[in-house]
């Protein structure tokens, strides 16, 4: 795949996202949070500063009130966005990289390598993630690095499994078979034939893993396993719980953060399902057929084997 | 296979789902029966059956340590005086080398067997044989314990050590006839306690709840008037507070933020609280082995830079007061030297004077406004606190703000409890928040603040005196106190301790901790209150038996 | 049968990995359990008492391999050590108090969520572009994006604290003695509504989408079309032919979801003070009660592995290909 191909690929995606309603909602939401994460902290002020009496409801001075520490909730939310997203995306990418390495190796080389690696990721897959994460995090000094490490350890296996399956499928495709027959080196086949054809899946995996990473990160931090003196979404919730948010009726200390976590997760998932519609050949075909029918002013009927429409 | 059979799994599920929905409409469950007091003291998700009063403080169910079992003397920390309990009299003999206690006659164990001085001797012998049980370290100063007869027991001391009485008095006594056959008393769960306390009968013990009934043979006639104590398992402070607010619990000892709004206002006629300032004192500990904190002028200047009024407002919802120059809490009201308090201006907020003190001590500010050490190093320090302890974290922030006015950049650094504890114990810090060490007299308090005998080298874990301060003058006074049985003379020595503390400022007192107590008077009467301060109201106050005073005074309405 | 044996072997392997991690993690990581123990008593303990306790807990300096073998032997006997926080109770006893509740909470949540989500998925695929298909997935994905415990907090705040419809926590009312009676069952269900409900709500979307997508694929396949062409009743085609085959990927996911939900329900338990393992685990971490922490991890892992084995057997029964190869 040449550079111009990559460029046209990206334009095609951007185009596709724009056309798909779900994907565009997701992209807009995500862009919003990324902007807040990148530029917000410049304007938010010191989130750790004591600005007033603890647990004050939202007011003109503090739009989202103050928390149990007498800090500005909005400033904490904005600064927390940066850290949480950074860890989320960082872990998302790491997890897919490791998963790709293991999965593609297992799928491509097959045989004993495959057997060994498959057992490895299957074992990790079947061990319950959060308890494992808690146990590992308990032994390490708390901080973002620990958190990232723990999330990578407990999160890579799923990607390995998916990507192994994809590699196996691709190996059997004609063009790869042809390359093997023509004697191309394994590395070249991997890099120039298999990986490019996995691009869309990899992107989807990164998005999915980021959703996982953000959720798990917030959960662990809520339990107090993160660095509780740092400002992140998870620690915000930890402090809200710690400072009796429910008892004191201080909804503003936990509602906005939870909503943000959900919005980011929702945005990513929408983007992903949009991608799915774009890249999944079955759904693509259906879409084309529907467009065709729509243009012809017809409704899909039962006679068409591909399009199933009961609406 | 038919369609129905295929989905029989789902078929079972739907009625279940309906049941979930239907159950939502079931009526609110019945309240606890009359006379059953619902208490929340421990925070656990489920109960483990353990009523061993001798193993470590936290593993036995409340109120094993004051309610099931009883000490020789109860110390009333609100009135600052001893109340005879299983022992009725004490006497120092043989030049204060022997402490003779007379035990109470007519006390029965809950199985009906008589209690005697021999049980006391047996208990202390257990502590000697099993070091893990000797929580208070009595065998550090005791030489031998013998029962002279059924109501007299002699404690022979290794040296004259009058404060040793406080540790002996607080020891809980177990029955010889039930414990002599226990092979490993350290790991003994003691599921069916035989004891002398007011509540000894385990009526119910389940994961979520347990209930203790009255001792049928209790030695105080007609008491306790409460029929039983019930303990629901609430895993968190928050959950226990909810139970209080919703009248599910009658008595608890939790921190509640904005207690008037959150708790009292919900039911002003029944919801009460009293937070007497009898907890331990909270200090800012400077590491006195390090420059510049080895300089008393610096410590006092730091102290004067702190706005303690703001601190108790922000950190503690105004539940406490600023500390005075003695550092003592209200538990020592009988010992206070008012002249020390009146002259102790180094705990008053006065930034201008604090600055001029540092200026005259030769610590100049650099161009960036930060003060410098003689070697040019700017004053850039961390204040250590424990993560999750939000009152401490807020207090640290107020302190940090105050110190900024002195040209000190003090950043708040939170650690997990264990990490924090290790640092302070090993003396690996510049500034840290910390608690004080308490006892019936100020002796313990000042012993751990400034006795040279408690100074450990940096790097070696120390139980107290984390700031590592030893004062020869204090050593002299503390030593004299250890050998002085006369109360009047003890008072004089205590006044001297306070004077030395105020003069040398080994640590910076911030505020005394309140003793937390919330209660609901709808069903029970007789809780201590500001109007009737007969004892400490907190269920957490079991260390020296305060709790027994309350448990034997409560009565159903 | 060989298939089941192979799976069983795999789970034994996984259990061994968990055990080994359990053993080596605390020994590889910084920190020493003895200091942790010391910290636990906040200095209220005399040094002599500490030394005595240390011996009681059996902290030793034997060679690592020897410790490892002793450890494996103990675990096989069901001895997971002594809990520091609940001294002198053995870890197994501490875990025993609440494990049923965790299983109940996570189990019923997973099963219900799977059943409801799958049925909704069938409906969404069958009535493509109907309201179920158009709105529900997006709505559930949105709900599913909330952290478990956050939703639990909100539910507790709204339905428990403010409206008072449901109890504020615990698995059953404090004044009821557990028994096999209808009244107790109703009481337990009443307490389970909010915790189970929030877990279901969060996980429903995943099942729905997974079933919907695989159902769409199956609905387009030849044999379903053939069944339709034969004029079989639509409901029969949908359930007997399509759903059964479309269920396979979901069932595979079920085993993994179990672990996932068990993890998530630990958080939910904490919010609802449900007497299960969740709070116990967090307390163990905070108290640095390593023996208890590892014990809980191990027991949860074994439960998940066992459940996975059951799922495998179910899968075998469901999947015609494996059934054929068997006969």
Identify the CATH class of chain A: Mainly Alpha
DSSP strand tally of chain C? 0
Write the CATH homologous superfamily of the domain at 96-287 and 298-319 in chain C.
Answer: MetI-like
Global outline of chain C: globular
The CATH topology of chain A comes to MetI-like fold
Strand content of chain C: under 5%
Mean residue pLDDT of chain A: 81
Characterize the main sheet of chain A: none
Give the largest interface pair and sizes: B-C, 68 and 78 residues
Structural class of chain C: mainly alpha
Q: Beta-strand percentage of chain A? A: under 5%
Supply Rg of chain C: 24 Å
The helix/strand series of chain C, from N terminus to C terminus, equals HHHHHHHHHHHHH
CATH first level of the domain at 96-287 and 298-319 in chain C: which class? Mainly Alpha
State the end-to-end distance of chain C.
10 Å
Average pLDDT across residues of chain C? Answer: 81
Summarize the structure.
With 311 residues, chain A is an all-alpha fold. Chain A contains eleven helices and no strands. Among the domains of chain B are: 3-43 and 234-276 and 515-556, Periplasmic binding protein-like II (D-Maltodextrin-Binding Protein, domain 2), CATH 3.40.190; 281-512, Dipeptide-binding Protein, Domain 3 (Dipeptide-binding Protein, domain 3, Roll), CATH 3.10.105.10.
Describe this structure in words.
The complex is a heterotrimer of chains A (311), B (557) and C (327). Chain A has 311 residues and is mainly α. Chain A contains 11 helices and no strands. The longest helix of chain A has 37 residues, at 73-109. The model of chain A is unreliable at 296-311 (pLDDT under 50). Among the domains of chain B are: 3-43 and 234-276 and 515-556, Periplasmic binding protein-like II (D-Maltodextrin-Binding Protein, domain 2, 3-Layer(aba) Sandwich); 281-512, Roll (Dipeptide-binding Protein, domain 3), CATH 3.10.105. Chain B has a 7-stranded mixed beta sheet with strand order 8-9-10-1-11-18-12, with helices on one face. In chain B, strands 15-14-16-13-17 form a 5-stranded mixed beta sheet. Chain B starts with a helix and ends with a strand. The radius of gyration of chain C is 24 Å and the shape is globular. Chain C has helices spanning 2-28, 33-40, 47-57, 64-76, 91-126, 131-144, 148-162, 182-219, 222-229, 234-271, 277-286, 290-318, 320-326. By secondary structure, chain C is mostly helical. Chain C has a domain at 96-287 and 298-319: Orthogonal Bundle (MetI-like fold), CATH 1.10.3720.10. In chain C, helix 7 packs across helix 8 and helix 10 (234-271) packs antiparallel against helix 12 (290-318). Chains B and C meet through helix 2, helix 7 and helix 14 of B and helix 2, helix 3, helix 5, helix 8 and helix 10 of C.
């Amino acid at each position: 795949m040449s550079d111009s191909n990559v460029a046209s690929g990206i334009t095609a995606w951007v185009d596709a996202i724009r056309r798909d309603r779900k994907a565009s909602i997701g992209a807009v939401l995500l862009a919003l949070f990324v902007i807040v994460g990148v530029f917000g902290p410049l304007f938010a002020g010191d989130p750790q500063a004591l600005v007033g009496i603890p647990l004050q409801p939202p007011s003109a001075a503090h739009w989202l009130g103050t928390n149990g520490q007498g800090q500005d909730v909005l400033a904490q939310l904005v600064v927390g966005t940066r850290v949480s997203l950074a860890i989320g995306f960082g872990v998302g990418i790491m997890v897919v990289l490791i998963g790709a390495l293991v999965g593609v190796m297992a799928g491509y080389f097959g045989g004993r390598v495959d057997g060994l690696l498959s057992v490895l990721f299957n074992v990790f897959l079947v061990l319950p993630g959060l308890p494992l994460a808690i146990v590992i995090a308990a032994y390490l000094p708390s901080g973002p690095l620990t958190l990232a490490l723990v999330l990578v350890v407990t999160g890579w296996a799923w990607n390995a499994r998916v990507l192994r399956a994809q590699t196996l499928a691709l190996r059997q495709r004609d063009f790869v078979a042809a390359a093997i027959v023509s004697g191309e080196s394994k590395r070249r086949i991997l890099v120039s034939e298999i990986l490019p054809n996995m691009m869309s899946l990899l992107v989807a995996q990164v998005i999915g893993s980021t959703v996982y990473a953000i959720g798990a990160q917030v959960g662990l931090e809520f339990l107090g396993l993160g660095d509780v003196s740092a400002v992140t979404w998870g620690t915000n919730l930890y402090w809200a719980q710690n400072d009796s948010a429910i008892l004191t009726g201080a909804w503003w200390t936990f509602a906005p953060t939870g909503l943000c976590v959900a919005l980011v997760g929702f945005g990513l998932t929408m983007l992903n399902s949009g991608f799915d519609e774009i890249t999944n050949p079955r759904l693509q075909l259906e879409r084309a057929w529907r467009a065709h029918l729509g243009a012809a002013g017809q409704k899909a009927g039962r006679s068409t084997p591909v399009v199933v429409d009961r609406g | 296979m038919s369609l129905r059979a295929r989905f029989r799994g789902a078929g079972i599920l739907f009625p279940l789902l309906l049941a979930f929905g239907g159950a939502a409409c079931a009526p609110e469950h019945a309240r606890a029966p009359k006379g059953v007091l619902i208490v929340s003291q421990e925070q656990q998700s489920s109960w483990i059956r353990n009523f061993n009063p001798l193993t470590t403080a936290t593993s036995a169910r409340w109120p094993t340590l004051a309610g099931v079992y009883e000490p020789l003397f109860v110390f009333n920390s609100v009135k600052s005086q001893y109340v005879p309990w299983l022992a009725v009299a004490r006497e120092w003999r043989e030049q204060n080398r022997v402490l003779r206690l007379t035990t109470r006659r007519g006390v029965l164990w809950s199985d009906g067997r008589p209690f005697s001085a021999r049980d006391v001797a047996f208990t202390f012998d257990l502590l000697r044989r099993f070091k893990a049980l000797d929580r208070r370290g009595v065998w550090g100063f005791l030489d031998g314990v013998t029962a002279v007869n059924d109501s007299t027991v002699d404690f022979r001391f290794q040296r004259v050590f009058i404060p040793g009485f406080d540790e002996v008095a607080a020891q809980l006594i177990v029955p010889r006839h039930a414990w002599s056959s226990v092979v490993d008393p350290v790991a003994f769960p003691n599921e069916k306690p035989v004891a002398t306390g007011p509540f000894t009968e385990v009526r119910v013990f389940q994961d979520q709840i347990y209930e203790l009934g009255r001792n049928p043979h209790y030695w105080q006639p007609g008491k306790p008037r409460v029929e039983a104590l019930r303990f629901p398992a609430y895993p968190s402070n928050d959950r226990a507070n909810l139970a209080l607010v919703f009248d599910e619990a009658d008595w608890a000892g939790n921190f509640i933020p904005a207690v008037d709004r959150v708790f009292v206002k919900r039911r002003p006629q029944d919801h009460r609280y009293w937070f007497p300032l009898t907890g331990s004192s909270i200090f800012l500990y400077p590491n006195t082995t390090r420059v510049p904190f080895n300089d008393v002028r610096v410590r006092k200047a730091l102290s004067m830079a702190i706005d303690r009024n703001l601190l108790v407002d922000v950190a503690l919802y105004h539940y406490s007061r600023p500390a005075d120059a003695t550092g003592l809490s209200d538990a020592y009201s009988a010992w206070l030297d008012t002249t020390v308090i009146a002259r102790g201006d180094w705990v008053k907020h006065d930034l201008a004077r604090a600055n001029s003190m540092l200026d005259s001590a030769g610590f100049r500010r650099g161009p960036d406004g930060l003060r410098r050490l003689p070697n040019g190093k700017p004053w850039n320090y961390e204040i250590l606190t424990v993560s999750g302890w939000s009152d401490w974290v807020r207090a640290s922030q107020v302190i940090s703000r105050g110190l900024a006015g002195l040209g000190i950049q003090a950043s708040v650094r939170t650690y997990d409890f264990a990490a924090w504890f290790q640092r302070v114990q090993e003396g690996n810090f510049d500034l840290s928040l910390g608690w004080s060490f308490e006892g019936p007299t100020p002796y313990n308090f000042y012993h751990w603040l400034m006795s040279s005998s408690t100074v450990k080298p940096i790097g070696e874990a120390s139980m107290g005196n984390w700031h590592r301060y030893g004062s020869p003058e204090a050593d002299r006074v503390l030593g004299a106190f250890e050998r002085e049985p006369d109360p009047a003379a003890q008072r004089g020595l205590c006044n001297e301790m306070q004077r030395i503390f105020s003069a040398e400022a080994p640590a910076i007192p911030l505020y005394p901790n309140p003793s937390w107590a919330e209660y609901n008077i709808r069903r029970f009467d007789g809780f201590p209150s500001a109007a009737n301060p007969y004892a400490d109201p907190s269920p957490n106050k079991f260390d020296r038996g305060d709790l027994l005073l309350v448990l034997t005074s409560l009565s159903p309405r | 049968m060989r298939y089941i044996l192979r799976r069983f072997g795999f789970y034994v392997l996984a259990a061994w990995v968990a055990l080994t991690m359990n053993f080596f993690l605390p020994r590889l990581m910084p920190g020493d359990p003895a200091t942790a123990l010391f910290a636990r008593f906040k200095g209220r303990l005399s040094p002599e008492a500490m030394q005595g306790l240390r011996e009681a807990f059996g902290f030793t300096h034997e060679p690592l391999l020897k410790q490892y073998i002793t450890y494996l032997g103990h675990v096989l006997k069901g001895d997971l050590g002594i809990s520091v926080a609940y001294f002198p109770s053995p870890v197994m006893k501490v875990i025993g108090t609440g494990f049923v509740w965790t299983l109940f909470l996570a189990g019923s949540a997973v099963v219900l969520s799977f059943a409801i989500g799958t049925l909704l998925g069938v409906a969404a695929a069958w009535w493509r572009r109907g309201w179920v298909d158009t709105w529900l997935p997006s709505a559930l994905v949105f709900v599913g994006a909330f952290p478990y415990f956050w939703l639990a907090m909100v539910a507790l705040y709204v339905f428990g604290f403010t409206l008072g419809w449901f109890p504020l926590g615990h698995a059953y009312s404090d004044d009821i003695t557990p028994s096999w009676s209808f009244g107790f069952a109703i009481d337990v269900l009443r307490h389970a509504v909010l915790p189970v409900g929030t877990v279901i709500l969060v996980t429903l979307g995943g099942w729905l989408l997974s079933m919907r997508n695989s159902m769409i694929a199956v609905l387009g396949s030849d044999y379903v079309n053939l069944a339709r062409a034969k004029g079989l009743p639509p409901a029969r085609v949908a359930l007997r032919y399509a759903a059964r085959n479309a269920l396979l990927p979901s069932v595979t996911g079920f085993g993994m979801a179990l672990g996932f939900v068990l993890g998530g329900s630990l958080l939910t338990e904490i919010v609802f003070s449900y007497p299960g393992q969740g709070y116990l685990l967090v307390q163990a971490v905070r108290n640095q009660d390593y023996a208890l922490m590892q014990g809980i991890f191990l027991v949860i892992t074994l439960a998940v592995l066992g459940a996975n084995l059951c799922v495998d057997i179910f899968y075998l029964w469901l999947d015609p290909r494996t059934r054929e190869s068997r006969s």
